[in-house]
């Protein structure tokens, strides 16, 4: 006689399993998966599309508004794109060569596309046929989930993205700007670079002169320049390269229609155990200095606490000062600022002129 099989314990998940399967068949939950070999017209049910099926072209309505969704990538020092796990939604009809807005979809988040969102309306210029809430996109663990909310419907399909070619072209242009491979300069070349930047800083554009007759701590940008604000790079060189190689930021710098404003703290890697490692910080500043020489009237560095001219400021025992030959003059020439009117000006807390920082350096040597 066969022994009686041991009965499995009754759990909530076991009780809900049939209901979950039933709802999944109805399109509720994560939806059913499609391979997206061609255009797919969305109905009332949710559908899943695996990450390997992107980039995706989204059509809202019959043919009223097209958007492109593709993986966001980060450029490393060798120019190799690496996926971040995020997705970017852009308007393919946006004017090329101009800075345009976009939406970012991060893991475990969702976004509702529709004219009811004022930011989206400003970025994508939705036509009247697009509903206030038209399409929901969910970033799942291994796939994207799409749910149509509009009677006008929506369609998804694959398209050939030229984003990689655009990024590679931008990276080649960055190498030309940086004068060669993106790597740390030898000490003598780095010092010569700092001295050249010091010369530029003594007559930096858009900075009214102080009582000492030198550029003061106020940076006043004309309304014709689109500000590109970047903060807290903390020696992550790939982040700087990614910013410059995406959208049309590099184009805007080259045609003089934008200004790159780095809001301090470009140095000191804040990853665990790397605060004392300075090679990446020196490479970061080498790149920023070369950008300043290439675009002297469009690249500005607003000094943060990690760029202080005093060694009294420290974090975990690591001084947060710009130490080294030539850096005292540079640190003193940088404005300390906080945004006041982003498109026009940056107001200072206080900014000593270069001569004052050199005096302080000599005083320290006497002590």
Oligomer: single chain
Mean of residue pLDDT values: 77
Largest sheet, order of strands side by side? 2-11-4-5-6-7
Largest sheet: 6 strands, antiparallel
Q: In DSSP terms, counting alpha (H) and pi (I) runs of 4 or more, how many helices?
A: 9
| SS-derived structural category | alpha+beta
Question: What's the overall geometry?
Answer: elongated
Give a quick rundown of the structure.
The protein has 367 residues and is α+β, with helices and mostly antiparallel strands. The chain contains 9 helices and 19 strands.
Please give a structural write-up:
A hairpin with a 3-residue loop joins strand 18 and strand 19. Helices cover 28% and strands 23% of the residues. The N terminus and C terminus are likely disordered. The protein has 2 domains: 145 residues, no CATH class; 202 residues, no CATH class. A 6-stranded antiparallel β-sheet has the order 2-11-4-5-6-7. A 5-stranded mixed β-sheet has the order 1-3-10-9-8, with no helix packed on it. It contains 9 helices and 19 strands.
Show the helix and strand layout.
Layout: H1 12-25, E1 32-33, E2 40-41, E3 47-50, E4 56-60, E5 65-75, E6 81-90, E7 103-105, E8 110-113, H2 118-124, E9 135-139, E10 143-148, E11 154-158, H3 163-178, H4 187-201, E12 219-220, E13 226-230, H5 237-245, H6 249-255, E14 258-262, H7 279-294, E15 299-301, E16 314-315, E17 318-319, H8 327-333, E18 337-341, E19 345-348, H9 354-366
Parallel strand pairs: 1-3, 13-14, 14-15
Antiparallel strand pairs: 2-11, 3-10, 4-5, 4-11, 5-6, 6-7, 8-9, 9-10, 12-19, 16-17, 18-19
Helix pairs in contact: 4-7, 4-8, 8-9
């Amino acid at each position: 006689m066969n022994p009686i099989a041991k009965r499995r314990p009754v759990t909530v998940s076991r009780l809900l399993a049939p209901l979950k399967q039933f709802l999944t068949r109805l399109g509720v939950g994560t939806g059913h998966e499609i391979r997206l070999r061609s255009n797919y017209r969305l109905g009332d049910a949710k559908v899943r599309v695996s990450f390997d099926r992107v980039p995706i072209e989204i059509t809202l309505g019959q043919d009223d508004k097209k958007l492109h969704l593709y993986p966001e990538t980060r450029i490393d020092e060798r120019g190799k794109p690496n996926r971040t796990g995020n997705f970017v939604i852009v308007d393919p009809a946006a004017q090329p060569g101009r800075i345009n807005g976009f939406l970012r979809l991060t893991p475990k988040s969702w976004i509702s596309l529709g004219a009811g969102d004022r930011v989206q309306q400003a970025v994508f210029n939705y036509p009247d046929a697009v509903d206030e809430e038209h399409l929901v996109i969910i970033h799942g663990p291994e796939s994207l989930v799409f749910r149509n909310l509009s009677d006008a419907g929506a369609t998804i399909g694959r398209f050939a993205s030229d984003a990689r070619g655009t990024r590679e072209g931008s990276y080649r242009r960055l190498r030309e700007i940086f004068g060669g491979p993106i790597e740390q300069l030898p000490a003598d070349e780095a010092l010569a670079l700092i001295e050249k930047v010091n010369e530029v800083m003594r007559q930096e554009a858009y900075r009214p002169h102080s009582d000492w007759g030198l550029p003061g701590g106020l940076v006043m940008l004309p309304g014709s320049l689109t500000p590109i604000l970047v903060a807290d790079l903390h020696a992550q060189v790939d982040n700087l390269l990614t910013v410059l190689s995406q959208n049309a930021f590099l184009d805007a710098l080259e045609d003089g229609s934008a200004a790159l404003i780095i809001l301090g703290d470009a140095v000191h890697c804040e990853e665990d155990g790397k605060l004392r490692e300075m090679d990446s910080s020196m490479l970061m500043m080498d790149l920023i200095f070369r950008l300043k020489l290439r675009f002297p009237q469009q690249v500005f560095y607003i000094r943060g606490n990690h760029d202080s001219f005093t060694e009294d400021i420290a974090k975990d025992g690591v001084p947060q000062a710009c130490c080294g030959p030539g850096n005292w003059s540079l640190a003193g020439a940088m404005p300390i600022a906080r945004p006041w009117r982003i498109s026009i000006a940056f107001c200072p807390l206080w900014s000593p002129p270069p001569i004052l920082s050199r005096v302080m350096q000599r005083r320290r040597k006497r002590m």
